[in-house]
Amino acid sequence: MVHGGAEVRARALVAAVTDAGGIARRATIVKRGHSQRTIDAAVVAGLLRVVRRVWIAVPTADPYLVAAARAGVVISCVTRARRLGLWVEADAVATHVAAHPHAGRITVARDTRVHRAVPLMARDPAALEDSIENALAILCACQPFEAALASVESALNKSLVSKPALLRLPFAPAVRQIIEAASPYSDSGLETYVVPRLAWMKLRIVPQAWIAGHRVDFLIGTRLVLQIDGGHHVGKQRARDNAHDATLRHMGYHVIRVGYIQVVEDWPGVQALIMQAVAQGLHLTEKRSQRAGVRRAEEM
């Protein structure tokens, strides 16, 4: 236990470590005016714990940060993206961390992947999470094209980075291709998959189009609406979506609504629905659809 003035100093020390994210380098805390003696006393009292000698943490510190400090790495790639609230494929469950190529032996848990790469942006020694720029660079080299594109577009959509700023960084050619293809308009990762997968159809596809007082995920042509449901489309949200679908149909739009599993695991089925609608001219206004039908009949 600590008493009197020592107790006041201990509380201030714990508050400083908590404000730093629950874990901080010992040297950083000392520079902020807390003595080694106060730190040692707090550790003995169980108010703080030592992680790899140079780090101190509160007992409730984020286990991801503690594990990163213990291993001498930073959280990066898809794990960093997920912690930032970016869209990441559901099956990207392993923990991804990063270290410099010349870092020594690194011991991590079995389900952890270590990326050894020179960072685009210098890493602060006191940081346990990579910058979003470094994390996206590693993610784009790690994940398949569509999954990486979805994560980048999610970052752009949330305004965590800007495309011009990203393009000024010295990305590898394959990573730069993903950045150049990204747009800030996709509201979910699933929407990112649609435009590249339908590009061969040479159709006008407008993401996040505004119709009847609400945004729709995609407007194909002038009358075909594609809506993609995520996990939040339940309860009141589902009721609002159904009501809007009904309004769209009354206005002459054809609505195709699909879910996460369909896009991820049965894309051919989703594409078939779109192809059938296009073949019937449902992506066109009524007059244009009739003219297209006449032309097809004459060609038969």
UniProtKB/TrEMBL annotation:
Residues 203-278 form the DUF559 domain. It holds the Pfam family DUF559. InterPro entries: DUF559, Restrct_endonuc-II-like. This is DUF559 domain-containing protein. It comes from Microbacterium psychrotolerans.
